[in-house]
Amino acid sequence: MSSSIAFDDLLQARQRIAGLVRQTPLEHSPSLSRLAGVPVWLKLESQQATGSFKLRGASNAVAQLDAEQKRLGVVTASTGNHGRALAFAASQQGVKAIVCLSELVPQNKVRAIRELGAEVVIKGRSQDDAQLEALRIVREQGAAFIPPFDHPHVIAGQGSLGLEILEQCPDVCEVLVPLSGGGLFAGVALAIKAASPAIRTHGISMQLGAAMHASLGAGEPVEVEELPTLADSLGGGIGLDNRFTYSITRELCDQVHLLDEAAIARGIRHAYREERLVIEGAAAVGIAALLDGLIEPRGPVVVVISGRNIDIDQHLRVLNGADA
């Protein structure tokens, strides 16, 4: 399946969205480098305008709609960050957006999406429920459906992040990527493995409801129960009819690592105390994997810090010792 998304698609996506997203910094982490025994770099996608990497894929997808599709608008289902990114990208390009969310999406993310001018629809207790509602709207209104991960334009947009990593850290040996539906992982891995198959790719997720990990173990996409977790952006299924991200992840992922809630909380605390970063649980999983000694790096490590959109009250609770 990865052959259906060519390296040239990533290059074109990067050029297409150059004026719409930021090239984010790669910052050295002295504390994690001491711990790992090799240079560790943090790729700060938390500094995107919407607070997460999702703006890359959403911007690339919206930019490729034709005039009629833009007139009818766009719709999506999201755990929060993709919806926020799509709302922002649509507003930049003069397109109406509808974002379907489940009841599990934190209220700070719901508010942020509404503030960007998108219509928000709350439906059910899982991303799968929200997606069914989004597809109903597509059928009734003719809007273009832009999914959060399993779409070639979305994957190619996320792949621009992988291209930046290769330019900013050409001697990278290990890349740690938060793993959920697989759009981020697939895009980054397509770029990384095209440069050198020897660079190891690590997908990092949580123990509570890691759908891609369960699907890889089953040998096909499977459903999992979506559970409350500090890494809420990694929740949701990958879709039983998954066309792209499952096969790309299966082909290009060297290792998957799962973290409990206490480890994710430690990652959030470390990011704040040692790196002066406020990040969400999904973005802290790479740091947490290093803190837990799950990675045995052979050389320089790049950790993708995927987003900062954590509820501030939750962040304060975690800093004060809570694991939820």
UniProtKB/TrEMBL annotation:
Domain of life: Bacteria
Keyword terms, alphabetized: Lyase, Pyridoxal phosphate
InterPro entries cross-referenced by the UniProt entry: Ectoine_EutB, Ser/Thr_Dehydratase, Ser/Thr_deHydtase_PyrdxlP-BS, TrpB-like_PALP, TrpB-like_PALP_sf
Keyword Cell membrane found: no
Domain Tryptophan synthase beta chain-like PALP, residue spans: 19-307
Cofactor(s) this protein cannot do without: pyridoxal 5'-phosphate
EC number: 4.3.1.19
Matching Pfam families: PALP
Sample GO molecular function, one term: threonine deaminase activity
SUPFAM superfamilies in the record: Tryptophan synthase beta subunit-like PLP-dependent enzymes
UniProt xrefs under PANTHER family: L-THREONINE DEHYDRATASE CATABOLIC TDCB, THREONINE DEHYDRATASE, MITOCHONDRIAL-RELATED
Protein name, as recorded: Threonine dehydratase
UniProt source species: Ectopseudomonas composti
Classification lineage: Bacteria, Pseudomonadati, Pseudomonadota, Gammaproteobacteria, Pseudomonadales
Chain's gene name: eutB
